[in-house]
Amino acid sequence: MELWIYGIIAFGVMLSLLALRVPISFALGGVAVTAIFLLFAWRTGNFMPERAIRATLSLIFASTYDLVHSYDLSMIPLFIALGHVAHRAGITTEIYETARVWLVRLPGGVAIASVAGCGGFSAISGSSIACASTMGRICTPEMLRLNYDPRLATASVAAGGTLGSLIPPSVLFIIYGIFTETSINQLFLAGILPGLLSMAGYAAAIMIWVRRDPSIAPVPAETIPLREKLVAAARSWPAVVMFAIVVGGIYGGIFTATEAAALTLLFATLVGLGRGRMRLADIVPTMRETAKTTAAIFFIAACAKTFVAFISLTGLSNQMVTAVGAAEFGPWAFLAAVVVIYLVLGMFLDPVGIMVLTLPLMIPMVESYGMDLIWFGVVIVKLLEIGLITPPVGLNVFVLAAVIEDKVQIGRIFAGITRFLAMDLVVLALLIAIPSISLIVPLTMR
Predict the structure, then answer these.
(1) Which of 168, 261, 406, 433 lies 20 to 30 A from 335 at CA?
(2) Omega within 30 of 0 (cis) for the link into 392
(3) What is the pTM of this model?
């Protein structure tokens, strides 16, 4: 049997396990280890398991070691910890409060402020799930108190939470950069304009919705004095400084992404302690939560790396590139297939799982078409962002429902999400049709 056929069989077994709701890390790791062992055991034509043990363990440990000892990977726990510290220090709350006091008198202003707050949180934490969870506790109860329609009050936060995937720093960009060996600094910069475009799209979706039905977002009677607005804006200075460190430092060539992560984490910790919002005792539970989240991401990535090593052994990627070339699919047909695949997978799997599952097969074909890997990374992350709010398993929707203790039924949240999904598709089409939206900022660094 040809090795690439063996690779297809293993890939099919892994997809079957996922269909049976086996966690993606166990599906990837279990299939990869078993398949590698059998591959080496049958290498001579006779089944000789004793000769396969050393080779299998060597390959697993080598791929895992290379991943865990990656310098770029060290920024993941730093940015995760930054999100926890910024929340405890009240920095993320201040971002939302600033947007709220300035926009509260606009139709749908508090919902737009929630999206802006999610964008600001995303620029600190890099995690969409953390963004939806944290901002859901802050924004949704406030909108419900102001008699906003529950669909708008929840959907705006669930959609806004996805900005954590695109606005730098982004955990997904870090993983993409490691698996594709592209510059994480340039990926971060490439996400800036698409992230702002997505945020503007969500704000536009809210304004269109409220204009058609003003009753869903009553305008509060309170008038906030200009002085209070200016005080709120001044109070959010730590978030501005942190964003400037990450984006300005990387763009100016002052810091690497990892150095920026470490510096902003130190800065946020000192701000929290200096303001009395945090105590030294709070650092321990913060690091404990960071360790749990990091361990889960690293375990998935390590299992994926082992699976990638197996795919390389079988030559399946090369065979697929050859088959696609022989079929003479154009780049637009390939991109259409990628969009469909990611939108379907996004309905059932988490973003990290989708990325590590598909990249080993996708990237060789992307390179064969001569596409820019930075631009393609932005398109992929945008597709993963859409998957976070796509029914039936939009992770951000379920996280938000849990945070607000099911005060709004999941069905009603998804009913509000449809308008934001439509805007997401518009933004996605623009990113695909006009690559310069993603590339104009990182190109100035090259």
Answers:
(1) 168
(2) yes
(3) 0.80
